[in-house]
Amino acid sequence: MSRLAKHCIISIIIVLVFAPIAASGTETAASPQEPTIHLVGNAHIDLAYRWRWNETVDRVGPDTFEGVLRTMKQEPELTFAQSQLALYEAMEQQYPDLFRRIKEKIAEGKWSVVGGQWAEADAILPGGESLIRQFLIGEEYARTHLGVDSIKIAWVPDSFCGQALSIPKIYSGCGAKYYVFGRGAPEGKRVFWWESLDGSRILAYKIPAYYSVAVNRKIKQIAEKWADVADYQDVMILFGEGDHGGGPRENDIKNVRMLQQAADFPKILYDTPENYFQQLGRANKEWPVYKGEMGLGTGESGNNPGSWRGAYTSQARLKKANRDMENLLLTAEKFATIGSMLQRKPLFPRVDFREVWKVILRNQFHDVLPGTCIADAADDAMADYIWVKDEGERLLKFGLEVIGSRIDTRGEGIPLVVYNPVSWTRSDVVNASIRFVMPPDDFQIEDAIGNEVPFQVEEWSEDGLTAYVRFYAENVPALGYRLYRVFERTSRSIKTDLLIRDGSAANKYYRVRWNDTGITSIYDKKNDREILAGTGNVLKLLQEKRSSSWDLMLSGKEFPIQSVARARIVEEGDVELVVEWLNKTESSFFRRQMILKAGVPRVEFRMMVDWHEQDKILRVSFPTIVESGKAVFEQPYGYIERSADGTEWPAQNWVDLSGPDFGVALLNNGKYGFNVRKNTLNMSVVRGARDMDPRMDEGVHSFMYAITSHPGDFRVGDVTQKALELNQPMIAVQENKHIGNLPNWGNVHVSEFSLPSRYSFFGIESDHVIISAVKVQQGDWSPADVILRVYETEGRDDDVIVHLPADAKKIVETNHVEQPIAAKSEIEKGKKQFRFKIGHNQIRTFLITF
């Protein structure tokens, strides 16, 4: 055989022998186009949903975490991420040994504390300040109880009501750098910079598939699909049983080991979210930018237009209680902080406030506040709100009593102090109770310099000693008070701007006409314009296609609502006119009232609903004269323009519809579902979906709403301020007669002075920048360190002056979890004030040391 023939034979043998090995080797090496899968163990635990919070604490939490720790013994490389600091606290209180072992894994770096929030809150229904408190209280607990200093990864895998455009500025302001979410990704985006109107950004990560992916061969396709859209080959996948807890288990670990050894499978490894996001940060990528809200049945959620929109109204009682408690706590904090500064040995009830906030925040969980939970869970939340109300009112009383004790109230007449919780001077009608020593023949109310004040008596107590009155309090200072006096003498008649005729009434702002159906006309006297294009404040009872606490799909059928009696005036006086309509269906009863007040630039409405309907939704409607207008909806610490095509959208305190030169706003004090169809403003009131709670919202509901108008758009109309005035009314407190100073008290700075008859503690020189929170620094016992938060409401830069109750030793800017940061603009400190520049749509937080 020739040398050439031998060479050919050897070559053939080599090819035949080694070709399978080479082919196998090619399959083993990951292709450059194949993703690397980073596995993070997770247990999505709903704090309350188809079960109660007590089951989560007693079974779901401990069973899940014991299982995770047991699995970590079997697989030392396993990593696990858990959010919701409320759940950690419950484990600490009920299962201290389990909690100790969790802390050990946290210290080892195997157990990641993510989210930073007290609960995985809904991302569009809580107020802006509540979303900040989720982080403030959550991170305080993580720092003091878990040894975790800073949580950079926000964790929102299951929020479905929508994710507000303002979320990036709120969350990044609380120290979050990354945002993990599961629903409503913008088209074609998986990793992207999510940007708010003020320019704040957070790096958003859309998890592949969902939050509890099963570990099997299918995750290769999940990862590949995600990587193709993201144009990035490293994919973080959350795995482990979710909803009712569970987390990674023995079978998951077995499957991971099998896939790691599979010749035809991409690289797969355990990782932590922190490591993964550090890798994202090092990637040489220019991530795309998205400016807008997310979810809401849009984007790539794959849901029809009705998806999730019912949750803006489901369990209306929870939503109303949440709004009331948010406003109560913020008001109580402001006055308790001021009161603490006026004490000899300053005390701020920080523990009480923290514990009350914890209950509010836990019930903002994304299946409780949206109303997609069972009846027992909703009942638990309502019981919690009763406790919060009692505590909140006690804390408010604490602050007002201290302030009131420092006012010089000596002189004739019964002292009556009106407190204003907002940061601008304000005039409004105030409710008060006046207690007399003996039943008076008559009385009158005057301001501190003797000007008579208009009032009307609503009713008397049975013993004739207490009068429940409404009176017009004018120019009450910003975040301050004004002193009035009550005299037992013949009341002189004061002429107000409130005029009443048959079928109509007017104040200096509006003339209103009505019939037996509703409001036929609201005429804006200042702008010389009619507001309504048809009868307003009309009820509509609509049929839903199917029972769903989440979804809202209407059949097109409307049910008749019967009139029980003709419209009638039920209250008439110098201060208020109240017109009432009574209506009913076969099962439910409705009382509507229109309230026109002297000197107040809004037309108010009060509604009582005794609800006993199923698979229906009740709406109230206002057709306006605004044609082809822009519909703007308030969001947490922000606003957004949306379509006026009848789509149901969530909103906070107001919705506005404005044309080029005129607009109309609908204000509310506890509703969240709204739609604008062409020229008509509609508010969803209550609904009865049976899938989660067979008797959803049966019973009595009471709430208020209002119409106000303005030239130009919502900015010109100061709509944000008007809505806050509806939500945060002024407070009248009868005071004892006393001198305000306290001689020989030991501290001359707070003892040897009396507060005057009117005073502003905190104020701001701007018509579009608001002081939203005043509180003592978290974790600090001394009221000398005060946190003051402001936000810009209309999208305009400004140079702002904040007025203070005393000279400040030091003023520094902090993030929203009260950690000092480099100031965004220089702070100019002056006598009892400071000055700074604020950018459009910004939220800024300051630590003031007095």
Name a few traits of the molecule.
7-stranded beta/alpha barrel; nine-stranded antiparallel beta sheet; single chain; Immunoglobulin-like; alpha+beta; 850 residues; Beta-galactosidase, Chain A, domain 5; six-stranded antiparallel beta sheet; 47 strands
Could you walk me through the main structural features you see in this protein, from its secondary elements to its overall organization?
The radius of gyration is 30 Å and the shape is globular. It is 25% helix and 32% strand. It folds into four domains: 36-291, 7-stranded beta/alpha barrel, CATH 3.20.110; 406-494 and 733-759, Sandwich (Immunoglobulin-like); 499-727, Distorted Sandwich (Beta-galactosidase, Chain A, domain 5), CATH 2.70.98.30; 762-850, Immunoglobulin-like. A nine-stranded antiparallel beta sheet has the order 25-26-27-28-37-34-33-30-31. Strands 11, 13, 14, 17, 38 and 39 form a six-stranded antiparallel beta sheet that branches. Strands 24-23-29-36-35-32 form a six-stranded antiparallel beta sheet, with no helix packed on it. Helix 3 packs across helix 4, helix 10 packs parallel to helix 12 and helix 11 (350-362) runs antiparallel to helix 12. The termini are far apart. The protein is an alpha+beta fold.
> CATH superfamily assignment of the largest domain?
Glycoside hydrolase 38, N terminal domain
Largest sheet: 9 strands, antiparallel
Number of domains: 4
Quaternary status: single chain
Question: Largest sheet, order of strands side by side?
Answer: 25-26-27-28-37-34-33-30-31
Principal-axes geometry comes out as globular
